[in-house]
Amino acid sequence: RYFFDRVARGKPICVPYGGKYITQLGHCEDLADFMAKCIGNPAVRGQVYNVSGQEYVTFDGMAKLCAQAAGAPEPKIVHYDPKEVDVPDGFPKAFPFRGMHFFASIQKAKRDMPDWKPKYSLLDGLRSSYLEDYVARGFDKKDPDLRTDQLILSKFMGGGNASVDEEIETGLSKERTADGSISLGQSVTWG
Asked: What beta strand segments (E) does 21-167 contain?
């Protein structure tokens, strides 16, 4: 809800860590499909799998894709240093993701279950989440608690320290997919 609460209302999105950390999401229907295919399949007995989407995206890219999924204009992204923000007790969490890269290969799942692959692209999954969860549950009609955003914006925009990125730079070899997310291929080597 973090991104949708803001893009649906035309609010800036406060993104820590320069917006450059990479994450990965998966759609619940893709997970359910994989789990259903495991039933009665001896090849998967006793195995552990990463089941997610095939695409990776930066925090900034996630903000932009959520706006696209919601049919909203591209958001203003305000970067901030979480160490410089003291969130008072009772205020909402400043940001929903950890300050680290967080993604995993799904190659083992695809190898052991050759008739499975994610049905949803990152953008399609976000569109589904926006319409079938966020809007369907009425979150678009509720007033989100943006007190923490107001605190961050007053500190970083008021002093002229905010930066708004137009492009995503990760320093990694990457390809832009049709839906605007970044695909880093099947494996990433961190040097």
From this structure: 22-23, 57-58, 77-80
Residue 55 near residue 122, CB atoms below 8 Å: yes
Residue-level pLDDT, tens digit, the chain, 191 residues:
999 999 999 999 999 999 999 999 999 999 999 999 999 999 899 999 999 998 999 999 999 999 999 999 999 999 999 999 999 999 998 888 888 888 889 999 999 999 999 999 999 999 999 999 999 999 999 999 999 999 999 988 864 433 333 222 223 334 444 444 443 332 232 22
With CA atoms as reference, report the closest residue to 134 among 72, 60, 53, 79. Answer: 72
Long-range contacts of 32-37 (CB under 8 A, 24+ apart): 33/116, 33/119, 34/109, 34/113, 34/116, 37/113, 37/115, 37/116
Determine the Cα–Cα distance for residues 181 and 1; give it in Å rounded to an integer. Answer: 19
DSSP for 170-183, written as a single string = -SS--EE-TTS-EE
From residue 155, give the alpha-carbon distance in Å to each of 44, 88, 93, 99, 152: 51, 14, 16, 20, 5
- Report whether 51 contacts 30 (CB < 8 A): yes
- Which tokens belong to 130? 């926006």
pTM of the model: 0.77
